[in-house]
């Protein structure tokens, strides 16, 4: 049983479609993972990382109703188990198979839950899941911004995608829990904030700040505020659909994953248009907002920045985000992990995957030749320096994780989930 701090990375597995659904953007392919997956897993071990955000490409695995191709998945997950790398399994990352179409399809939630059940039954040793990644961003980019998948640009398109994505996530959690009752769900979601540029922009900014919570409100069965309730019903959600989310309370199986990038804060104009503001509040301030709302253990599940001309930009950002993690912890928020996303550089995220330009983004711990970047060396050292310190703080969160290979000895009973240990009297109360 492992209960220490979760230092993690991830292997980018976004699979949206663009150009009216005619072109598939597969980051696993663009970044060379299909060819170098054994090397990639070895690099995870080389860094001293035990937890990996990872998942099979949904469109290549889920071929039809009750029709699956597990070949790649069998090989990769067997190797992860051998290496004792704990996967945080990401089952749906920004796209669906062509035969499902897109997130406007009302059949998607049930079909996806069947896939999640089949996955859990095939790999019963897997305990940690992110069933649907960044639901808010996926619905926004697909249903409102017109960038991916259905490429709609309406509030109704956004709400439809949102309700289907959250329902898929909830049904998948229920399906996985039937197979693995001690499953833990780390719901990676973008943590956002919208700043009013002028007094006249306060109204639009407040609306956007309310809308950013919708995916997690519905996922965790929290009643939305009256303005958002009207917004949902005005744009196609029924009262019955809304009450489905209120009636499915699975919070006690969940860790709230908060993603933060320099692009997560926005300036809102009087017209309601928004643009990136850069870092103003930062991760710790915004994460405290989310924690105050949901009262769940937290994990920093994504961050990165490009290595720029000075060569130290990503290293400086790593230390800034790590300082924010410590600040959150010292504020009394139960934070259990940190993630640099991703293991290798990515491709075409500078245009949010809207174009197939083949432009390499220097965001990884390693480049695409699998050579370590300065931020990779810095992260490796950070893990060495801190992995023994964090579990001995005066307030220590215990995450009941069963290591791969030990699941046969586990009872598979739903645990109390998270216990607070306060018996270390000689630990410093503040780490900054």
Automatic annotation (TrEMBL):
InterPro entries documented for this protein: GH, Glyco_hydro_1, Glycosyl_Hydrolase_39
A Pfam family recorded for this sequence: Glyco_hydro_1
Name of the protein in its database record: Beta-glucosidase/6-phospho-beta-glucosidase/beta-galactosidase
């Amino acid at each position: 049983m492992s209960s220490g701090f979760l230092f993690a990375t991830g292997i980018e597995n976004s699979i949206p479609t663009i150009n009216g659904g005619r072109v598939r953007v597969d980051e696993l392919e663009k970044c060379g993972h299909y060819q170098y997956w054994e090397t990639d897993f070895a690099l995870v071990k080389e860094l001293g990382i035990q937890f990996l955000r990872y998942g099979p490409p949904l469109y290549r695995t889920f071929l039809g109703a009750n029709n699956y191709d597990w070949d790649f998945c069998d090989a990769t997950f067997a190797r992860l188990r051998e290496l004792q790398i704990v996967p945080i399994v990401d089952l749906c990352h920004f796209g669906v198979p062509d035969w499902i179409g897109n997130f406007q399809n009302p059949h998607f939630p049930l079909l996806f839950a069947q896939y999640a059940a089949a996955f859990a039954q095939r790999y019963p040793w897997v305990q940690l899941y992110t069933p649907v990644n960044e639901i808010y961003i996926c619905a926004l980019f697909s249903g409102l911004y017109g960038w991916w998948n259905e490429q709609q640009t309406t509030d109704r398109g956004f709400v439809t995608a949102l309700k289907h994505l959250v329902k898929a996530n909830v049904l998948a959690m229920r399906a996985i829990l039937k197979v693995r009752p001690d499953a833990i769900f780390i719901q990676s979601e973008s943590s956002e904030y919208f700043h009013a540029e002028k007094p006249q922009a306060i109204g639009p900014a407040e609306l956007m700040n309310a809308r950013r919570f919708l995916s997690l409100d519905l996922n965790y069965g929290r009643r939305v505020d009256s303005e958002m309730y009207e917004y949902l019903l005005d744009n196609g959600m029924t009262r019955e659909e809304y009450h489905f989310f209120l009636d499915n309370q699975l919070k006690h199986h969940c860790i709230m994953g908060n993603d933060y990038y320099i692009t997560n804060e926005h300036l809102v104009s009087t017209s309601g248009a928004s643009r990136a503001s850069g870092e103003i509040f930062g991760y710790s301030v915004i994460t405290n907002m989310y924690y105050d709302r949901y009262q769940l253990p937290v994990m920093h599940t994504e961050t990165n920045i490009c290595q720029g001309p000075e060569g130290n930009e990503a290293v400086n950002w790593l230390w800034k985000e790590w300082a924010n993690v410590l600040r959150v912890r010292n504020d009394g928020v139960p934070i259990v992990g940190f993630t640099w996303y991703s293991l290798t550089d990515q491709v075409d995220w500078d245009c949010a995957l809207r174009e197939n330009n083949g432009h390499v983004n220097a965001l990884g711990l390693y480049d695409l030749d699998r050579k370590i970047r300065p931020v990779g060396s810095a992260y490796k050292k950070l893990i060495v320096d801190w992995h023994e310190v964090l579990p001995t703080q005066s307030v220590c969160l215990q995450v009941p994780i069963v290591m791969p290979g030990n699941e046969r000895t586990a009872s598979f009973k739903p645990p109390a989930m998270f216990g607070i240990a306060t018996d270390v009297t000689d630990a410093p109360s503040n780490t900054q």
